[in-house]
Amino acid sequence: MKLGINLLCIGGHIDEAAMPYLELIAECGFDHVEVPVMHGSPDHYEWLGQKLSALGLGAAQTSIVPDLDANPLSAGDAIRKRGRAHLDWIQDCAEALGSQTVGGPFHAPMGHFTGQGPTAEEISYGAEAHHAMATRAARHGYILALEPLSRFETYFLNTVAQANAYIQAVDHPTFGIMYDTFHANIEEKSQTAAINALGKKMHVLHVSENDRGVPGTGQIDFSSVFSAVKAQGFDGHVVVEAFGAGVPELAAATRVWRPLFPDLETLIRQSHSFVRDAWNAA
Among 176, 187, 227, 244, which residue's CB has the most CB atoms within a 10 Å radius? Predict the structure, then answer.
C-alpha cells in the first residue's frame, strides 16, 4: 500500500507557499501526495514534480471537468471538442508532474444536473473520450481512476454498479475507478459488498470520513473497508481526502464552507497514524 494525502486540504493550486506542508507530509511518512490539477501549465507541474521528488514523495493527480463549456459528454460538437482538449491538458500536466495515477471526476462538470441519469449518448461520448485517455496513459506508464460521486454532486456516475458497467463501455485495462468512502457511504447499501463488486478495477482508494474531516473520527467503519480492500489483493494508492474551510474551485459542488479539522498539522499527523494503524490491523 502506498499512503498519500490529497492536497485539496491545502488549496486548489499547489505552489511554493505549500512547501512547509509538503515537508511535514514527507516527515510524517506519507509515500506520495495527490495533487489537484485544476488550472496552470505543464511547466508548473514539472516544477512541482521535481520538488516532490526531492522530498522523497511520489506524485498522483486529481482533476475535474471545469464547466459546461468544456464538457466531453456534450451533444454539441464544438463543446465536446473543447472537453476532449481539456482531457488532453489533464494528461499533459500528469506527464509533466510524473503522476502515477490520474483520478477524480473527469467525466462531467460537478454540480451540474440534467434532471435524469446519463443518457446512452453521454455514456458513448464519455467512453470514447476515456478510452482515448487510457490508451495514452498506457503509453506513458500511469493508470486512470475515474471517480463516481454521490447524487448530490453529479448525475453521471454514482454507484459501483454504474461504474462497473462504464468500465465495460470504456474497455481498456488502464482504466479503472477511484473508490471514495465518503461517496460510497451515501450511495451503497454496503461498502464491503461494493468493494467486492468492484474488485481489481479499484485503482485508487480515497479514505474520506462521512463529514470529510479527519479519518477515524466519524461514522465510517474503516476496519471493514480496509479488510475488504485487502481481501481483493489491493496494494496500490490509498489517499486521505479531507477538506478545509472550502476550496473555491469545489465549494459550490461539495458544500464545504466550514473547517472540518482543527488545523492542517493535526489532519496530516492524525490521518497518517490512523490509516497506517488501521490498515495494518485489518
Answer: 176
Please state the domain extents for the chain.
2-281
- Structure-block grid coordinates of residue 24: 511535514
Q: Which residues are catalytic?
A: 147, 241
Contacts of 125 (CB under 8 A, 6+ apart): 72, 73, 74, 80
Global pTM value: 0.96
204/103 Cα distance (integer angstroms) = 8
DSSP, collapsed to helix, strand or coil, labels residue 159 as coil
- Give, for all 282 residues of the chain, the pLDDT tens digit: 999 999 999 988 999 999 999 999 999 999 999 999 999 999 999 999 999 999 999 999 999 999 999 999 999 999 999 999 999 999 999 999 999 999 999 999 999 999 999 999 999 999 999 999 999 999 999 999 999 999 999 999 999 999 999 999 999 999 999 999 999 999 999 999 999 999 999 999 999 999 999 999 999 999 999 999 999 999 999 999 998 765 666 666 677 777 788 899 999 999 999 999 999 999
d(CA 154, CA 170): 19
